[in-house]
Amino acid sequence: MKLFKKFILFVVAFALIVPGVSVHAQDKKTVMTTFYPVYYLASRIGGEAVNVEMLLESGQDAHSYESTAKDAVAVQEADLFIYQDDEMEFFVSDLLSIVDQEATQVLESTEGIELLSGDHNHEEEEHEEGHEEEHDHEHDHEHEEGHSHEFDPHTWLDPNFYSQQAENVKNALIELDPANEATYTENAAKLSEELTALNEDFNVGLADLKNRTIVVQHEAFGYLAHAYDLEQLAISGLANNAEPSAKQLAEMTNVVNERNIQVIYVDPTTSTTISETVSQATGAELRPLRTLEFITEEEIEQGEDYFSIMRENLAQLTK
User: Fold this and answer.
1) What is the pLDDT of residues 248-262, one digit of tens each?
2) For 167-190, b where at least 16 C-beta lie within 10 A, e where not — what string?
């Protein structure tokens, strides 16, 4: 492992000193983001004043991603690196251990925001005061079978939390590039207005929903459930690649039958095999509900974005 880190450091240093390799021959600052939710914030707030890039390609899972030497070079060459948080992109701690953070500014986008518990987030419990400090880079994520979540990282599915992240991104951009403070402030204010309107749409749209229980494959909707008084029942865990045991599948099948659940929500951009199993056993309909962890390149080309997909989620929930 030490040899691998030395190799990465050599590659990063080489990329920074060899003529023609650095990207800083231009005036615009470069912002590297991890995946779509933070990429969208940086793009909207940065506008034309910065170059915004995304480390993960469409379809790559931020939970299970493993960083490479190429990633380390890309982050080191950027002026600012933005990621969701330590509960989402587990690979970031290793990545940052070999990146010179004096040369590249780093922002954890949920910094200072009190997150929901990662354990049974459908119970809609918030952490007690004081846990905010624990959220800062002090988690031991590893356990015997992989990663565990102390906090739910899917904040962007609540427009109010996402707005708080937007404020963090705005402040980081201003710190990086004070000359364009007016641009970042104006763009962030407009985004905040749109998020407030989206929140109101959800409040109105879901107000009269009679069945307030949503069964989902991926336990990503805790913030949405918490914000709009819904109950989330998840077949698998907070990581969208989590595989439930046969016992968990049987228990979920029983719950769906006992509660006469008619719909199971799945993200069509990921594997739906698990939900199909429960659907076949219960007769429940599969219906799309996007986690927005990524959107496809084709969707981006068609003009889809965070807001259009969130409103489609609302339409699915109110059918």
Assistant:
1) 888 889 988 988 899
2) bbbbbbbbebbeebeebbeebbee
Instruction: Read off the amino acid at residue 235.
Output: I
Domain ranges of the chain: 2-197, 204-317
Residues 274-296 have pLDDT tens digits of 889 889 999 999 999 999 998 98
Strand partners, 53: 32
Closest to 99 measured CA to CA, from 86, 81, 84: 81
pTM given for the model: 0.83
Say if residue 266's pLDDT is above 80.
yes
**DSSP letters of 69-125?**
HHHHHHHHHSSEEEES-TTT-TTHHHHHTTS-TTTSEEEETTTT--PBBSSSGGG-P
Q: Which CATH number fits domain 204-317: 3.30.870.10, 3.40.50.1980, 3.30.2290.10, 3.30.420.40?
A: 3.40.50.1980
Q: Which residues on adjacent β-strands are paired with residue 15?
A: none
Q: How far apart are CA 302 and CA 319, in angstroms?
A: 24
Residue pLDDT, tens place only, 109-149: 999 999 999 864 333 333 333 344 444 433 333 333 345 56
Give the residues across from 285 on adjacent strands: 263
Instruction: Please give the CATH superfamily to which domain 2-197 belongs.
Output: Nitrogenase molybdenum iron protein domain (3.40.50.1980)
| 101/72 Cα distance (integer angstroms) | 12
Distances (CA, A) of 202 to 54, 101, 160: 29, 39, 11
Residue 222 predicted with pLDDT over 80: yes
